[in-house]
Amino acid sequence: MATSMPAIIKLCSLLLLLVLVWGVFEQPKTCEGGESFACNPKDAATKDLPFCRATLPVQDRVRDLLGRLTLQEKVKLLVNTALPVPRLGIKGYEWWSEALHGVSNVGPGTKFGGVFPGATSFPQVITTAASFNASLWEAIGRVVSDEARAMYNGGVAGLTYWSPNVNILRDPRWGRAQETPGEDPTVVGRYAASYVRGLQGDDSNRLKVAACCKHFTAYDLDNWNGVDRFHFNARVSTYTIANNITYAFMEYSYVHKASLTG
Ligand SMILES: *[C@@H]1O[C@H](CO)[C@@H](O)[C@H](O)[C@H]1NC(C)=O
Ligand SMILES: *[C@@H]1O[C@H](CO)[C@@H](O)[C@H](O)[C@H]1NC(C)=O
């Protein structure tokens, strides 16, 4: 565990940067004027900045953007409600959207209404997991990410989803059993890999949307008897961490380059 943590953190930062860049640079074709996104072609003050030029290599655009941000601005981008940077035409971004079994309005990054009155809600994960059908899990992920992309293009959802929930179900009193694929680390790992592939797509350079498996790790206690997950000191043996709890995270994270959240 001790040796694999920095790799996970590095991977995570790289992916978050990738998604930020993508979210900032991608001009949704269906959104009139693109006012809700960075690099608005109508904004004379920013449209010619190098990081907005789609013809330049992504690395150059990232370097340009990072070089322009002050330390204070970077710090304000490190929380889930990333604040706007008006002088560079960068809008605020809410990293927190949810899609455990369909795009959901539980996350503050997603709003239903108008032309997007709702999204497809598939059955709870514990039931689709019981089909033991990995291609079904992936197919559901593809539908969810199609809808997520459509909503993002309409400016009502993010590109970053705090899904799936691949905590191993250890005790039903936790209360979130229905969100998970169950108690078997192998099934949960397969589920994670399949659903994440469905969400992210298989283009090696671009993510369709970014999945983020939760909750890393030994974090599955919500609120019991005055003890909550943000303050609870879970004492878990190294053996259990390696063979049970983190197994599902490992299965997908190195293969599919998804991020992790606590
Ligand atoms: C598994 O799911 C796929 C859809 O992805 C479906 O076509 C197939 O029939 C399912 N397999 C079984 C054994 O139910
Ligand atoms: C993982 O935890 C579950 C629930 O506590 C237990 O039934 C299972 O035997 C554990 N598996 C391993 C490989 O330790």
UniProtKB/TrEMBL annotation:
One of the GO biological process terms: arabinan catabolic process
Gene3D superfamilies reported for this sequence: Glycoside hydrolase, family 3, N-terminal domain
Top-rank taxon, per record: Eukaryota
GO molecular function annotations of the record: alpha-L-arabinofuranosidase activity; xylan 1,4-beta-xylosidase activity
Record domain Glycoside hydrolase family 3 N-terminal: where: 115-225
Signal peptide: 1-23
Keywords: Hydrolase, Signal
Protein name per Swiss-Prot or TrEMBL: Glycoside hydrolase family 3 N-terminal domain-containing protein
Organism ancestry: Eukaryota, Viridiplantae, Streptophyta, Embryophyta, Tracheophyta
